[in-house]
């Protein structure tokens, strides 16, 4: 497996691959890989000849006061996991190469980013779309894969990819969960053993919503109230940032669960901010 | 010569060219081509195997009240001129394909665009960087060429290209002038025969500045005053928008002409807005 740290090198390598007709799959990550990432890498291997996994904790998508400096890292472990999963190339650029002195170009998807996560984290998506476009230009993939867990991120990036005419197939991979249902996330490691059960508040709430829809209850306000109760029952200290109901593609909010309605939520538990989502119909 | 109007077609063609190892030169234009454009196309032919000239009057770089609807167009004439210059591919996309309903992704170079032209035309460069990045993604050129006449545009686009890691060589081609010195511009056709001599106010002012620097006068305020006088003498009705002195690369303003100082100006004459520039040292 090739480990590349220089932008020039990844660019000359991907140019050579393109000239040989080798198709490239890109899996951008912030490292500290879990089963969710590895399942995406394996999926990418089915879609392209060669998979480039990138590891970069992107500073521009963290706001001041967020967990940039404490974000968990394990480069050695990540490299081993990618190798074991069958990945052929790992790209690990330096922050000072990605954002050199005087850097000042940013990409924004203007309206999809104003709601949900974007409302809680105003500059977050601008950082995400910018770094992903830069990775597109460095690696020129034929296909790119993102996880459904960050569904708004996937939707925003898909919109960016289409709007800017990148000739890249965009695949959203399903969320991988722990045995008990908690969505895999690098941030799960922040919980102590005694706190960990409370993290299930999100999936319990989403399952309750799904059950209500199965029982033909489609009023979002009613479902939301029930979800709030479930969360509070699981963990008294939980602070709910939002529970939202939107169309999966347009992100248009809805009062009633219809086809393609996705319910998403963000909850702060013991200073750890978790997100999760589920398609309700 | 190939004339392509579909985004899909240009993308499959450029993908094929890349896989064959053919290098691509890109010359983005808004059409109504003059000798300035043609000299850029000819230069591009020396730098790459195949040259794609694009013709697209980009709506997002015009503000309300600017000359989008009246901007001169001559598709037939343009195609003939490109053919005569040796261009192999012309790409003429439709505005509704470039900006379909719901389009909402924009690219901004944040500080270089706040001065000079960007001050006079606040949303202009956001439109320019966005369309050029889109054209980059559609055509994947090895080299791109822009004219020096719009020097801030060239500087901003070069910065965007570098910041976003496009693997594209960026060339700035010298300004081509009419015999009397007027910088070639599609907007020159707006002048009536009697108004046309007044359009020389800009080059007269720039030449006066150059002469002063040759005589070791490097104080920008003094040079600016002289330039204002020259402009007013040439055309009483001229409205000067700005006369500025900046570093060519960083666009940093300067009080004293030093190496790489470029003087640029924008002047409104009979409702036609002209720009020009000259390196003074």
What does this protein look like?
Two copies of one chain form a homodimer. Chain A is of the alpha/beta class and 281 residues long. Chain A has two domains: 2-173, HUPs (Rossmann fold, 3-Layer(aba) Sandwich), CATH 3.40.50; 186-279, Pantoate--beta-alanine Ligase, Chain: A,domain 2. Chain A contains nine helices and ten strands. Chain A has helices at 7-19, 35-47, 75-85, 95-98, 117-120, 124-139, 151-163, 201-214, 220-234; strands at residues 2-4, 24-29, 50-55, 89-91, 105-109, 143-147, 169-173, 239-247, 261-269, 272-279. In chain A, the strands form two sheets. Chain A has a six-stranded parallel beta sheet with strand order 1-4-3-2-6-7, sandwiched between helices. The longest helix of chain A is centred in the middle third of the chain and has 16 residues, at 124-139. The N and C termini of chain A lie far apart (42 Å). At the A-B interface, helix 1, strand 5, helix 6 and helix 7 of A face helix 1, strand 5, helix 6 and helix 7 of B.
Low-confidence stretches of chain A: none
Ends apart, CA distance between termini of chain A: 42 Å
Largest sheet of chain A: 6 strands, parallel
How many domains of chain A? The number is: 2
């Amino acid at each position: 497996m090739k480990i590349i740290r220089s932008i020039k090198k990844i660019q000359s390598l991907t140019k050579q691959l393109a000239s040989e007709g080798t198709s490239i799959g890109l899996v951008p990550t912030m490292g500290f890989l879990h089963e969710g990432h590895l399942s995406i890498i394996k999926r990418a291997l089915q879609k392209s000849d060669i998979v480039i996994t990138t590891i970069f904790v992107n500073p521009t998508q963290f706001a001041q006061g967020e967990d940039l400096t404490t974000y968990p890292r394990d480069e050695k472990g990540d490299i081993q996991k990618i190798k074991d999963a069958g990945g052929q190339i790992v790209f690990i650029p330096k922050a000072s190469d990605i954002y050199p002195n005087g850097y000042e170009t940013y990409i924004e998807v203007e309206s999809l980013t104003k709601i949900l996560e974007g409302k809680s984290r105003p500059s977050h998506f601008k950082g995400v779309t910018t770094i992903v476009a830069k990775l597109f230009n460095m690696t020129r993939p034929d296909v790119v894969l993102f996880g459904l867990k960050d569904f708004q991120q996937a939707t925003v990036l898909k919109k960016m990819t289409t709007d800017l005419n990148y000739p890249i197939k965009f695949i959203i991979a399903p969320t991988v969960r722990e045995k008990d249902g908690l969505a895999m996330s690098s941030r799960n490691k922040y919980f102590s053993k005694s706190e960990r059960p409370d993290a299930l508040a999100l999936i319990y709430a989403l399952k309750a919503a799904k059950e209500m829809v199965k029982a033909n209850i489609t009023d979002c306000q009613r479902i939301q109230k029930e979800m709030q109760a479930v969360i509070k029952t699981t963990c008294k200290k939980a602070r709910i940032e939002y529970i939202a109901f939107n169309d999966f593609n347009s992100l248009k909010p809805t009062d009633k669960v219809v086809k393609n309605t996705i319910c998403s939520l963000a909850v702060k538990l013991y200073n750890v901010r978790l997100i999760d989502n589920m398609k309700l119909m």
